[in-house]
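Q: Joint fold for the lines below.
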Amino acid sequence: MSLDKVMNAESVAIIGASKNETKRGFQAIRTLLDGNYEGIIYPVNPKEKSILGLKCYSRVSAIEDPVDLALITTPAPTIPAVLEDCGKKEVSGAVIIAGGFGEMGSEGKRLEEEIVRVARENHIRIIGPNTSGMMNLRDQMNLVGLREVPRGDIALLSQSGNMALTIMTEAKLKSLKGFSYYVGVGNEADIRFHEYLEFFREDKVTHAILMYVEGMREGRKFLQEAHKTSLKKPIILLKSGRSSTGKRSAGSHTGALAGMSVVAKTAFQRSGIIVVENSDELFPVAETLSSLPPIRNNKIAILADGGGHATIAADVLTDLGVQIPELSEKTRERLRELLPRSAAVINPIDVAGGTDSDPTVFADCADIILKDPEVGGLLIVGLFGGYGIRFAESLSLMEEDAAHRMGKMVRKRKKPIVFHSLYTSAKPHALHLLRYYGIPVYDSLDIACKCVSALAERGTYLHRYHFKTNFTFHWRAKAKHEGNQIIRSARKEGRSALLEHEAKKLLHLHGAPASKDRLARTPDEAVSIAKRMKRNVVLKIVSPDILHKSDAKGVRLNLGTEDEIRAAFDEIIENAKAFRPDADIRGILVAPMARKGLEVIVGTKYDDQFGPVIMYGLGGIMVEVIKDISTRVLPISPVFAKTMIGETKSAPILEGIRGEAPYDKRTLKSVLLMCSELIESYPDIQEMDLNPVIVHEQGVSIVDARIILKPEGKQH
Amino acid sequence: MSLDKVMNAESVAIIGASKNETKRGFQAIRTLLDGNYEGIIYPVNPKEKSILGLKCYSRVSAIEDPVDLALITTPAPTIPAVLEDCGKKEVSGAVIIAGGFGEMGSEGKRLEEEIVRVARENHIRIIGPNTSGMMNLRDQMNLVGLREVPRGDIALLSQSGNMALTIMTEAKLKSLKGFSYYVGVGNEADIRFHEYLEFFREDKVTHAILMYVEGMREGRKFLQEAHKTSLKKPIILLKSGRSSTGKRSAGSHTGALAGMSVVAKTAFQRSGIIVVENSDELFPVAETLSSLPPIRNNKIAILADGGGHATIAADVLTDLGVQIPELSEKTRERLRELLPRSAAVINPIDVAGGTDSDPTVFADCADIILKDPEVGGLLIVGLFGGYGIRFAESLSLMEEDAAHRMGKMVRKRKKPIVFHSLYTSAKPHALHLLRYYGIPVYDSLDIACKCVSALAERGTYLHRYHFKTNFTFHWRAKAKHEGNQIIRSARKEGRSALLEHEAKKLLHLHGAPASKDRLARTPDEAVSIAKRMKRNVVLKIVSPDILHKSDAKGVRLNLGTEDEIRAAFDEIIENAKAFRPDADIRGILVAPMARKGLEVIVGTKYDDQFGPVIMYGLGGIMVEVIKDISTRVLPISPVFAKTMIGETKSAPILEGIRGEAPYDKRTLKSVLLMCSELIESYPDIQEMDLNPVIVHEQGVSIVDARIILKPEGKQH
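A: Joint structure:
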């Protein structure tokens, strides 16, 4: 159901309307009246005849005309009955302010489930509960009570009222930007983050979406919608609750599961979201991305009127991964003509006093620099805006001239300019003009650099997004009949794990290089299988009752002769019986000894927030001690399989060190992709563990495989 | 020579004094006059009789009374003659503004050397050249031309005029703090960073030292002086020029060698310096450290009036390594009595509306929290200062009351409080009061957290500094007679490297577990040495002309029988002759085969800025691929040797993984300490490479050792 009637309501009932000025039920009406809300307001309170000159109704169902939205300010226990009444009136949405739900333990959780049930029965969508409210600033539908919130093109989604207040205050004090909508998402009991994204994607006023998130209920759907949305508009997100103390704090706050793992961060970025780590940077990045064209080639020039700022900016941008290319000879020559002899015309460009008596030289330089095809954008750092204050008043008019010219330059060249100015807080008119043209100005070098890097990140994403998968599974699409049978027969026996040879067979069906093991029921069978393998073999116990074979001494390696095999067979059976006398022994698996190579680990599991994820790492101490692991939300594309292998610290080992030949990365990549395919094909699979996988110079051997099934009825 | 007469000059000659208002020689006099400089001003210009009402002199030597300091504003080529003239007048110091010296290539470098020579001959100390000037704000000796710089207790050293301007502007706009001195260090041609530190250490007005550094000429002396200074006053430092582009920018700017390595950062921290990475944090951290007592136990409480800010602060502080302990049951009980039922009285503490109608509850809470002995300091985040603005004007008086109480609380309990307030830019009086008591207030959560972590870092340092060595070598103090002879005899032969057995003998002399190798000149000798070793042996070629023995096929491993040894001996000699027919072959080294164990690498080298440094890492791919290395400036103490071993990512391997016994970390530690002792004992040693060193369960074997000597005459 579209959220249109909720977000753009043409009439609002204020349930819990009040004449008491300290009550939310008064303030909300006051704000709507003062703000010239374009719809109709219906106060609801059985004890009042009128409030603030408006007729007051005893209940929602007593209102004559249609009601789109209800703002409910009454306490938690009253809500189910209120919603029932709203249902009678066919109200589309309800904003529930009260806390005391999921964030307050099991009793609250029950009440939350109750209101969701009632709302669903009555076709009412809920914002909240436990929210500071919502605003549609285009229609001046302000259901929060905050005043003087600037209107503009940024949609704000926040799980903290204070953070929303922080961001709105910052927008008002430090920018010309404002907001199209604000939603206090609260406990996300009904409407989830991803549904708001869907709405904002289509909204014509909104040009960027700014999110403060502590915990999220449906991570995968969110990724899917973010992926679609970020192609149209930038999404900027700060996720807090990373640390355990932060989680403790967030948990008591929104009742949602908090946590920002590396998985989450890479998944957010893959769906095109610009992830911000510092709260100081959140609004500035949104301001920049909603105002300027992205940087197409990750390359930036820095223009400075002093060495210190240039040096710091170069450091920070380099840390952020943005390139600072040398300028073309032509560009340098033109800059040399314009600037004093002592100026640095490499990049960073230092004007060395060349702007002191004429700040329009900034615009001249910017024009030359932006024409350089190697330059994707420009960061200007230093004193601009302060020449009139510091040197002579007349210079401020020249600064204004320069601002006009640079503003038009950005539009013409479709390359962004970002400013750092020491004089931001003095509010010179030239900086106001820059902002009017959409050029942001910051008094923090770090923030200005972060904004530049966000423009570069967005440019790079838009250039490459088609290489990325979109987090959508086509469940069962590539399943094989025989594969389904393997799972079905395990289910029939009531097993929640495949036996090793079953797991390997499943892998085989999808083209994976698992060793071709065979089950032997007698020593004779084992010997004849081993003969056909034409190499030394491994014997392993096969029993649904023995998951960890080594613990039961159920594995014997490197057996060559017939005698060795026979002896090992008997020994393993004996050990297994000693380990667990009632074990259901299916036989003994005969596997060829793997060739030498590099041990790696590949696995999949279910993440609470995002569903199936895959991990990869070099075996041994690399995983055990260094935790050198790469992880992604599934499904993955070939590009991601490659990146996963390449981004581990130990990746150079695969290239072959000390003169060794390189290992077969190509086949290893195909193993990761096969895992992705397998998870998509068989929704029954909960967890998969290929360990070890041995990578050879040519080829790969999956030596051991463990596949765990979901509890019955939990598959997609 | 003390800098007192330079820094606290009672008379200043302005060389290049001018009547032209745009000239520095005019502005400097104007500023001194306007600022009520407490000393005497002597304009110097042969073409003028008087300037701004002051008698003008043709040259410094024509001034009748003593002159302490000269501000030289004339161009670079005039400076040597000007200094000569200053010398006649026994001027103590000169501030040289002009650029065009070391930062401008080899010609400039020669001119810089020239002025340093003239200055030394004439006993004049130089600030600069290529500096924006200096200020002594106590005496209003402002030689920069900037106006309205706030006076206070922070000394500012900067290698960028713009960064100094940035910091002063920030101080004026956002704090009640100011500066005791400012020095634009410029090219550091004569007076170096460490000499300013010495001066500020003793200066009574200065309570903190703030430094912006791009490159540094005498890193080790700086560390030594910083070590002494930081025990008395905090030093806060931002070092830029980390990235290669940043270095390029800084190099063209100050002419000094830039670069911020991990070595530099740990060395700075070890000398008690608070290293800041973001320029936004530089002044706030100095403000905080100059105003508040440090946090003694690295444990902080967070008090918030909203969940979002608390969650972010908890995340950021955790990332910064500050602990957020749970509060004692007593503290929690007292908070529960004070706050609403829904308040969180764990840590972070969320008042949950408990301050809405009475913000003095903040002071009540702070009082309870700071009494908890587990709590070393308090961070208050959110809306404080804005209650009067947001809710009712009368609340601002209560906020002021709370501010007074908390200000006194900090003094009484000697525990710091730091504030984040959303309403900082509205400048409410309550926040002004907090600052009056030395409690800083920031509108950035990230910066407030960084300041808290700086207080914790300083507290921890002051608590533990006596475990740290002080970067001072007692050269030759622990040298052995026999060791000196080994080096002398190598020198006599004109060699710049010790032979392997010489290096090992040197190690032995200092108690190191180097293998007890013996030199054999004939196969018979080799056999008899091997017999006495009672285990398999290794043979290695010994020749000053063959440094890399493997390249010459000069090594044979694991030889047991007499025949094997004889054959290997002949083979090695043959290979060596084939490799280099004219090689001076001294014989063959017979070494016992090392027992199995874990391979590590230990080495020392000379760092351009800091002199001798030591490195340690696990051998093989850990060093080769993962670059998992730990480095320190020498000398090191036992605590540092332990930390070096413990801080590598691979350290857990030493503990024994997969049920292995742990390795002998104790002896390994002693090897690192022995390296430190060796470098201190023999200033001839340039570089030392122990690779591999094998760590056993008990004991350590230094299997190979390479020691390179400095060029003659370069030792200390």
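Q: Anything notable?
A: DSSP finds 25 helices and 29 strands in chain A. Chain A has five domains: 1-132, 148-291, 293-467, 516-592, 598-709.
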